[in-house]
Design a protein that fits this description.
Elements lengths: L13 H10 L2 H12 L13 E2 L16 E7 L4 E12 L6 H18 L15 E8 L18 H4 L9 E4 L5 H4 L5 H9 L5 H10 L1 H5 L3 H16 L7 H11 L6 H42 L4 H8 L3 H12 L1
Parallel strand pairs: 3-4, 4-5
Antiparallel strand pairs: 1-2, 2-3
């Protein structure tokens, strides 16, 4: 068995799972390359040849870590026997070893290609290795401060310059996108789920669904499946938040009964959120008045007024003023 391949332990990473679902869709993935990575060569990809690699590239140095998604494709309508392996790392936290990790993955991909090439061709002058394109998709809350070039991980790298092995990876930061910047994305699924990465509550998710209702209504069955999978994961991470409205939205979407009903559901959600906000404000005001009365009562008691006088003066029950006086004497 290949010494760098082994069976990984099961690890549940909700962030990775929903993004793997997203980038498992060809249209979303190609849109990602064109609209986020800004890769000029993406226009030359033969879509019929684009497929996810079945090989898992897992390294001894990083147990439980594997190359999240590896795609391969030909270009120029298959006229060139060239494969692009696009290595995509899905990150929700800053990993300062990323350039080193990507180097190991890239070498393993190349080694796998060489070992599986025709033995009569791989040592010939014209034998070529496939291009390996490393990409990091980051959606964490911290700033990504990891160097985007391998060279910068070497001590005194400026001194040795081009003598050092080097590559640059493309960094796509999901938090850097807003409604305006995703407007031109070719994939409606990528548009919607990219904005999901910026949502922080059930209410925000519902608002996003309403905002992108036109896209969601036109989802294919495959896109809707991926959308539902992402929503199910986000619901599981909602903690104590009520997700019943999201359940209802999913039911409407799956039954293709979105028109009108979804708008009403979102409108009711906004009314409910405003009511909760107003209730919070009112409760805060009431609490502030009670605390102010207690402070005034303390001052009057320290001035020598009787409990009855204080209760009458600040409009508090006598038993509450007695409690305040008891605490003062302790």
């Amino acid at each position: 068995m290949d010494d760098l391949l082994f069976e990984p332990q099961d690890v549940y990473e909700p962030h990775d799972v929903r993004l793997k679902e997203l980038f498992g869709n060809k249209d979303a993935f190609v849109s990602f390359l064109k609209d986020c990575v800004k890769a000029d060569w993406a226009d030359e990809i033969d879509l019929d040849s684009l497929r996810k690699s079945e090989t898992k590239f897992i390294l001894q140095d990083f147990r439980k870590k594997e190359a999240d998604i590896v795609y391969e494709a030909t270009i120029n309508n298959g006229s060139q026997r060239v494969f692009f392996y696009i290595h995509l790392e899905l990150q929700s936290g800053v990993d300062y070893r990323m350039p080193y990790r990507m180097l190991l993955y890239m070498v393993e991909i190349l080694r796998h290609h060489y070992n599986n090439a025709d033995v009569n061709e791989r040592d010939l002058k014209d034998f070529k290795f496939p291009a390996v394109i490393p990409i990091v998709f980051y959606s964490g809350s911290q700033q990504w401060t990891v160097p985007t070039s391998l060279r910068e991980m070497f001590d005194d790298y400026e001194r040795f310059g081009n003598s050092l092995v080097n590559f640059n990876y493309a960094l796509v930061n999901a938090k850097g996108y807003d409604h305006d910047s995703v407007k031109g994305f070719q994939s409606r699924l990528l548009r919607v789920l990219m904005m999901f990465e910026n949502s922080g509550s059930v209410t925000e998710l519902i608002d996003l669904i309403h905002k992108y209702e036109a896209d969601i209504k036109n989802f294919t069955e495959e896109e809707l499946r991926i959308f539902n999978a992402a929503l199910d994961i986000l619901k599981s991470l909602a903690g104590n938040e009520d997700t019943s409205r999201l359940d209802e939205i999913q039911r409407l979407l799956n039954e293709r009964e979105v028109d009108g009903m979804l708008s009403n559901l979102v409108a009711n959600e906004k009314i409910r959120a405003e009511q909760l906000r107003q209730e919070g404000i009112e409760q805060g005001i009431e609490r502030g008045i009670v605390l102010q009365k207690a402070e005034t009562a303390k001052a009057f008691l320290m001035m020598g007024l009787t409990v009855e006088q204080v209760a009458k003066g600040v409009y508090l029950p006598i038993n509450e003023v007695e409690d305040i006086k008891r605490n003062l004497s302790q």
